[in-house]
Amino acid sequence: MKKKRWKWLLPVITCILPSILFMGCKEEGGYRTGTKVSDAYVDPKKIDEVKEEDIRTMGFEYDYDNLTYDLVWADEFDYEGLPDETKWGYDVGGHGWGNNELQYYTEGENAYVNDGHLIIEARKEAKEGMDYTSARLVTRGKGDWLYGKIEVSAKLPSGLGTWPAIWMLPTDWEYGGWPASGEIDIMEHVGYNQDTIHASIHTQSYYHSINTQKTATKYIEGVSNDFHVYSVEWLPDKIMAFIDGELYFTFDPKDYKKVPTYKEWPFDKKMHLLLNIAVGGNWGGAKGMDESIYPVQMVVDYVRVYQSKEINELIKK
C-alpha cells in the first residue's frame, strides 16, 4: 500500500509542485505555467533561427560623419492660395481615424498658403456628423522616399484637445496593415502637455496599443510662439529625430533584438509625409477639451527632403 501511495504522488512531486514554484513542466511539447501550457515559451535552440531573407538592418557599412545630402523635394510656400496640388493631396473623412478623433478632415477648406506659410486650421464647426473640421495633408503619390532627411519648420497650436502631428506612413503597405508596415512620428504634441514634443516609431513588435512603442520626448519652451525645425534622419539601419538640429531620439532595432526582422524594422520601403491637426481623440482629448480656443492653427514655414548619394549607392548593391 505504501509503495502504491508514493507511486501516485510521484506526478504531483515531479510536475505540479515545480509548476507552483514557477519551474515549469513539459507537456506535449509545451511548458506549464500553473495548470496551463504557456504560449510564451520559446525554445532556446530556435531563437537565432531567422531566415537570411528575413533579416533587416544588417550588413550596411557607411561613414555617417561623411554622408552628403542633396535636396530632392521641397515646398517653401512662396505662393498664395491652396497648397501646391503637384506636391500635396488630402486624407478626407470623419470616422475617428482609429483614435476616436473628433474632426472631419476636409479638402481645400482647412488648409491654405498665405504670406509665405502653409496654414492648417482646425475649427469648431459641424460637418458630416462631426463637431470639428481640420486638414490632413499628404505627399502620397507625389513625394515618396526610401531613406533620407526630412525637415519641417513649424509653429504649433496650443490648447486642451489639440493634437498636431508631422509624421510618415508607408506608401504601399507591403508588410500589411498598421502597424506591420511601420509609422515614423517626427513630431507629435498634445495641448494638455504644452511644449513637450514626442518622436516615436511604430512596428508590429513595437506600438502603443501594446505599450511597446519606442519613443522619446523633449521639452522646448514656446513651440506655439516660435518656429522650430522638426526632423528625422532615416538610414538603412536606424532612425534619429532632432529638434533644431539637436538629436534626442534614436531607434536602432538591434538595441532590442539581436537579429531584427520586418516586425522590428519595416522601414526599408517607401514612405510619405503627413501634416495634420487632430482634435480630441484617445490621446489628444485624454484630459478633456477646451471648445473656446478654436480656430487654432499649425503654421508651416517650409518642408525639405534630402537624400544621401552614399546611402543611395549602398542600397543599390
What keyword list fits this structure?
317 residues, mainly beta, Jelly Rolls, 2 domains, 10-stranded mixed beta sheet, 8-stranded antiparallel beta sheet
- Classification by helices and strands: mainly beta
Number of DSSP helical runs: 3
Give the % helix.
under 10%
Give the strand tally. Answer: 21
**Cα radius of gyration in angstroms:** 25 Å
If classified by CATH, what would the architecture of the largest domain be? Sandwich
Main sheet: strands, sense, barrel: 10 strands, mixed
Specify the overall morphology: globular
Look up the CATH topology of the largest domain. Jelly Rolls
Q: In what range is the share of β-strand residues?
A: 35-45%
Pattern of helices and strands = HEEEEEEEEEEEEEEEEEEEEHEH
CATH class assignment of the largest domain: Mainly Beta
The number of domains is: 2
Mean pLDDT: 89
Which spans have pLDDT < 50 for at least 5 consecutive residues?
1-6, 15-40
- Measure the end-to-end span: 76 Å
Describe the structure.
- The protein has 317 residues and is mainly beta.
- The protein is built from three helices and 21 strands.
- The radius of gyration is 25 Å and the shape is globular.
- Residues 1-6 and 15-40 have low confidence and may be disordered.
